[in-house]
Amino acid sequence: MNRKFIDVSFKHLFSAVALFSVLALGAILLFVFIQGSLPFFTSTAQGIRLVPQRIDELTVNGEQYLNHATFIHLPKGTDRITLSFPAAHGSETLEITINTSEKNPEKILSFSENEQIKITYPEAYVYTVSWPAAIAALEKRIHIILPEPPYSFWNFVSKMHWRPSTLKVYGIFPMIAGTLLASLGAILLGVPIALLCALFMAEFLPDKLAALVRSGIELLAGIPSVVYGFFGLMVIVPAVKNTFNIPSGNTLLSAILVLAIMILPTIITIAETSLRAVPRSVREASLALGASKMQTAWRVVLPHANSGVIAGVILGISRAVGETMAVILVAGNSPQLLANPLLKSIRTLTSTIAMEMGYASGRHSEMLFSIGVVLFSIILILNSMIMLFRRRMEQA
């Protein structure tokens, strides 16, 4: 009776934990997808926002604000702004007309004639009005932030420039290309080496020596990615620079070499385990038919273990596509796309998220979530293509 009660209790406990894990994962994915889709359907704000700087008492359209430290939100559809605040010689007043039908942010606001002020337009959708003082640190300023309209998804994935701070341009095509080039290069270089190494360990290496090598490879699989990145920065980057006589070794080639080294332990470990799990009778049947040991390993054992081998390849690809720290250290992180990028600096999607999430805000932060959604989609598409390839192999 006690044993049955314990078994039922553990069954319900495991079911609850599994359900909680699925719900938590689903909630995380839903949050990321919602945040990533917001920039393409909503504006950054409902109306214009004001941010006073070194102005303790400000009147906006007849409403007074004292020591206001956050945004002053204006109602949507406001077509005129009247600003006033006390000054040394009386009061300062500014009239601003809003053209709600204008699409160009540089032409939306029109200011009344006032020789005492300076108006700057340092970045898209933000005006800064300054009242000069004896020193710049005493200038009174008002920042006028216009709402950014929904961004075009096509421009997001196809434009060549990423300038979130100055021009509010969010084009990630060079980063998509950099991610795909670095990942595919690492796959083309690393997967064949990993499969040959796994096949050699499982079929030709003596058991004791294979166990020793296996332990070393499993140890390499547990090394943090930043260590691989530091190795690439200290060894691979200078080697690439000296070999090709280029100004900097932080290039796509360096990223490919580091990623190829990183995915080797993962693929080798899983593939070698799958190869060793192939029944001995399969090998004996092949040898009995006159096949050599090499033919048996290559044409019988490897196809028989293709399910586990492909699982290892998928994990390796996922690690290559999603790698961050190692790529940041060796790739150069320049968001550009050139005709011959192999010896040029690149930036990947993961690098952009890691480097800019700490200071991003507003639309910029939402766009980084959108990059995460694109990255997830790329991994899903690559893995689906591999699974389709395996299914066709099984049907052939």
Major sheet size, sense and barrel closure: 5 strands, antiparallel
Gyration radius from CA atoms, angstroms: 30 Å
Share of residues in strands: 5-15%
SSE series? HEEEEEEEEEEHEEHHHHHHHHHH
Q: Which features would summarize this protein structure in a list?
A:
single chain; 396 residues; alpha+beta; MetI-like fold; 5-stranded antiparallel beta sheet; 12 helices; 55% helix; elongated
What does this structure look like?
With 396 residues, this protein is an alpha+beta fold. The protein is built from 12 helices and 12 strands. It has a 5-stranded antiparallel sheet, with no helix packed on it. Strand 5 (80-87) and strand 6 form a beta hairpin. The radius of gyration is 30 Å and the shape is elongated.
Question: Brief overview, please?
Answer:
With 396 residues, the protein is α+β, with helices and mostly antiparallel strands.
Give the SSE layout.
Blueprint: H1 2-37, E1 49-53, E2 57-60, E3 63-66, E4 72-73, E5 80-87, E6 90-98, E7 109-111, E8 118-123, E9 126-131, E10 140-145, H2 153-158, E11 162-163, E12 169-170, H3 173-203, H4 207-221, H5 225-244, H6 252-276, H7 280-288, H8 293-304, H9 306-322, H10 325-330, H11 349-356, H12 363-395
Antiparallel strand pairs: 1-4, 1-10, 2-3, 2-5, 5-6, 6-7, 8-9, 9-10, 11-12
